[in-house]
Amino acid sequence: MRKNVMFILMTFALLVLAGCGSAKKEAPTGLNQLDASRIEFITLQHHVNNQSHEITDNKAISRFVHAISDAEYDQGKLDIAAPAYGASVEMKDGASQQFSFWIDGETTGLFIVSGQNGHYRLSETAKNELRDLFQADAGVQQSEVRTVIFKCDSSPPLRTS
User: Fold this and answer.
1) Could you tell me the domains of the chain?
2) Is 96 a residue whose pLDDT tops 80?
3) Which parts of the chain are coiled coil (predicted)?
C-alpha cells in the first residue's frame, strides 16, 4: 500500500514538472498585429547622435514591420546599457507604439516595446535591416556636417614661393 502511494505521488510530481517544462513563452498581443497599411509614419531616432528622421514611404514601413514581426519573445528583463536607437510608430487612427533597439556591433539584436514586460530577440537579417533603416539618412547628414566643417575652416592658405 505504501509503495502504491509513493508511486502515485512520484507520477503526479513528474507530470507537474513535465507540464512546467513545456510551458511556451507567449509574446504579448499587439506586436504581431502591427499592420504596415495602418501606419501613418515612423519616427526613427539615433540617440547617440541625437538625430531623427521620419519614414512615410510604404516600402520602408513594410521593411520595418517585417524586420520586427519575426522576433522571438523572451520574458526576461534586460539589464544592459541604454538603447542606441528608438522608434515611434504613429498609426492612422492616432494610436502610437514606442520601441527601443539594441542593434549595434556584434551583439544579438534586441528590442523592447514600451509598456510591455520582456524583450524580443532579432535575427541577424532583421538586425541588419533595421540598422539600414535607422542609418538611411546618416550618410547624408554626416556628409553635410563634413561639408560645413570644411567650409568653416579658416586656416590661411598655404603660400608657395
Assistant:
1) 28-138 (3.30.1490.410)
2) yes
3) none
